[in-house]
Amino acid sequence: MPRALRSASSLTAGTYRWACLVVFTCAVCAPSGTVSSQTDDLDILMQAQPQQGEATGSPEEFEAWSWLQRQKFIRARELAQATLKKNPRAYVARLVLAMVYAYREANFPRALYHLNIAREDYETHGATPTTGSAWKWHPRILRELASVHNNMEHFTEALQWMDRFNSQYQPQIIAEKAWPLMKLRRFDDARRAAAAGLAEGSAGQRSVALNALCAIEFEAGNDEASYTACKAALDDSTYGYTGASAVDYTNFAEAARALLRLDEAEQATIKATEAVLSWYGNPWIELTDLYVRQARFAEAWSALQKAHPYRARRPPHVQITDRAETRRAMATFLMTMGKSKEALRRTEQALRAPDRRAHNSRNPMQDRAIIALLDRRVQRMEAERLMEQAAADVWWKRPWYWAQSLWLRYKGWQRGKLALSTLTDPSETAEHTLLEGIFQIGTSKSAITPPWMIGDLTELVESTLARQILHHAKTIDPRPRAHGHYKGFLAEVEYRAGNPREAHTLLQQAIPALAEIQETLMQARMNALQYATAMQLNQPRSAGTALFQAYAMDPGIFRRLELAIPIHSVTSSDDLTQNVAHAILRSPRFDSSPRFQQANLGFALKVSQAGPSLRCCLMDRSNNPLACSNTPLKSDQSPREIRIQASRDFHDTAFAPALDLSLTDINSLEGSNQTQRDTLNRTPFGDPPAR
User: Residues 279-315: pLDDT tens digits?
Assistant: First the structure.
């Protein structure tokens, strides 16, 4: 099967292969029934056009086209513009210019402008020319119009141009119509288009139709049917002569994740990283998300480092289609690493510049809500970090920390309102459909939702409404493996509502169910809440067990939940170590009440001098070190500076997984280890000027 149908776009978190329409171009297209070639390679795509002597066009226009064939976009653009200055009705030059805007710059509005003019100028030859070969440009223009309208999410217009093509040319666009129909949520019509593609009988139409059914059933909420359809599409691709591409594997992985078969999803996604490159979707991003939710932080870091190089291999016009999604994945990973400041930059950028979702089946409101919710949590994490620093500084400087912290919390409150208003937007949903769907982890309504973080919504939704929504979502969800998610979310509702006994009971049911499906990070969150509820219920033994289990899985959970953990100090008697220990114990992360020491509950803090460094260790109940920081002691530092630095180093070490990340490492995620260069923001002609 031609590669175009192997590498287009994948479903929801993967995208469907709409690119097959873009590239199902008229190399041999004719008004009567000849067969066209189908490909997805950009170089072949550019060559799929009449040559000089075969169609109307000036020598200058064909020279511009020849540069376009070689993907020398700047030269092609210069020649096309020069030709149009001499002859504004040169429709071949218009087409060249439109394709430069579309395929090099992803400037689809400008591409559409020139395509419309090219069509109007061409049709001066007659709407359906029957002599000569000038007609060979016309089907190309019509297909490009359908493609550009789709990229701009004008799905009704895209269908109209497909129908216009079908009224004049063969072979017709059949199964490709399923995608825009699905985006318009006309699922029955989309299924009929896919069935017609299967009935047509060609290998190309079968591939498009099978992938369409995979996406349609997923988006329609038929998770088992989607799994079956995606498996059929993958099998069809695997046994074709080109083999399966990344999109085939990521679509199947998405369907497996919907059924919470995370092992199966992982294996399919790993195969996607080794398969033929696809224009849309990034399997390394999907692996990062999966590894983070399973608390496999070293593997998540390794996958995230490969995301940008994979993305950079794609053609220029599709590199920006998942820019915000890449930033979201970076932000979630950095948040779990305790890097709130670095995560904050990514969430704010993703909010300012959302992705186009033409090649992705999920509702773009889901992306907007999740990014807003992430930004809310990161704002509050940064506020917590400032309060931790304030505890180590002199008293008269603390009001400045408090003021900054309040400002960050206010911004977090704004982001929470944005997330909630997005999920309850009456123009997008009725009866809280989006809000209800976001709790249905893995489905099309919640495909990118981090299950370990979605409990934050329970802080924003009134408890009675939250209970109603969760009970209804659970009732209509047939997946048995989703049991642990709903128990956990309901436990958070009861905890926020001040019902610790009900919350504690639900948590005891949720934790083993989450462990069974390897939802480790959410399991850590549930353990942290079980510690909190057990303390409220005066059950110190149960609290202690839950406390250490939560810390072992995810040390950062206590900062994200803004919980204080019990601790006592076992420092030496010299002034410096005691001074540092007292500063750390004042942190909002710790509660040093004597009752914890009497009950032998919680952690111990040990501060000591180790040669030229100050060593701060968090110890378990058996005095084994769990996390230790080392702060160099410099002769020119004041006691205040040592205290502040030692406290910062300790918090950064104690409340993050044991994975050493430098600022250079973090910047390299965006393709550069230089602070001033961000290749996610690069223009089609290179990097923007440094600010």
Answer: 778 899 999 999 999 999 999 999 999 998 888 888 7
Q: How distant, in Å, are the alpha carbons of 56, 515, 631 from that of 646?
A: 75, 36, 6
The mean per-residue pLDDT over the stretch 542-553 comes to: 94
Place of tokens 């995560």: 343
Instruction: Tell me the two tokens of residue 577.
Output: 């170590």
Distance between CA atoms of residues 379 and 360, nearest Å: 29
306, 332 Cβ separation under 8 angstroms: no
d(CA 340, CA 55): 59
Average pLDDT for 222-231: 93
Tally DSSP H helices, then E strands, for the chain. 32, 5
* Residue whose C-alpha is closest to residue 632's, from 656, 611, 659, 617: 611
Q: In this structure, which long-range contacts are made by residues 37-42, counting pairs with CB atoms below 8 Å and at least 24 apart in sequence?
A: 37/2, 38/2, 38/4, 38/5, 38/204, 39/2, 39/3, 39/4, 40/2, 40/3, 40/4, 40/5, 40/6, 40/7, 40/8, 40/279, 41/3, 41/4, 42/71, 42/103, 42/315
Alpha carbon distance 229, 587 (integer Å) = 53
Cα–Cα distance between 180 and 163 in angstroms, integer? 12
pLDDT, tens digit (0-9, with 9 covering 90-100), for 132-141: 555 678 888 9
**C-alpha separations of 456 from 98, 325, 344, 675 in Å:** 45, 20, 17, 32
SS3 630: strand
- Enter the tokens of residue 571: 């420092």
Residues paired with 566 in a beta bridge: 591
Contact assessment for residue 586 and residue 564, using Cβ atoms and an 8 Å cutoff:
no
What is the side-by-side strand order in the sheet with 603-610? 590-591, 565-569, 603-610, 613-619, 625-632
Angle at 39 between CA 36 and CA 41, to 5 degrees: 150
Q: Is the pLDDT of residue 1 over 50?
A: no
Residues 6+ apart with CB under 8 A from 252: 214, 227, 230, 231, 233, 234, 268
236/244 Cα distance (integer angstroms): 8
Using a 10 angstrom Cβ sphere, with 0-12 exposed, 13-18 middle and 19 or more buried, the burial of residue 455 is buried
Q: Could you give the CA distance from residue 306 to residue 277 in angstroms, rounded to a whole number? A: 14
Percent of the chain with pLDDT over 70: 84
Instruction: Give residue for tokens 């009001």.
Output: 399
pLDDT value at position 358? 60
